[in-house]
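Appendix B, Record 12. Input sequence as logged:
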Amino acid sequence: MAGTPLSLEKLKYYEDKIQKELKESLSYVENVNKDQSIGAKESSGDLSSYSFHQADQGSDTNLMEQTVMLMEQERDKIRLLSDAMHRITDGTYGLCEICGCNIPEARLEIIPYAKYCIACKEKDEVKGKRRRR
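Logged structural output:
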C-alpha cells in the first residue's frame, strides 16, 4: 500500500524544522570542538602550573569519553537530518522506505528524520536484536 506524498505546505514546515535542528546540532559540534581544542586544563579554569591529581585526571578522562560519545551521536543525527533534507528534495519525505506507507505526522513531529513507519521500525529493531545474538 503506497502512501501519498505530503503537501508542499507540510514539506516546507518539516524542512524548516529539520534546518533548525541541523543548525543546532552543527553549532553544538562546533562548540565542543572549540572546547576540546582549548584543552582540559584551560577549559576547567585551572591555569596553575601544578599537575593534576590522579582522581582529577580520571574525572577529566571520563568526561572526555562521554563528550566523544555524545559527539558521535550528534554527528549521526546530522547525517540523518541531511538524509531527511534529501528526501524532501526527492519528494519521498514522510514515506516509509520499506513499505512506502505514510509515516504518521506525530512521529515526524518528534523524529523529523524518521525514515520508517512505526511497524517497519519495530520489525527492523527485532532483526537487529537477532543479528547481535
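Residues 122 and 128 are 10 Å apart (CA to CA).
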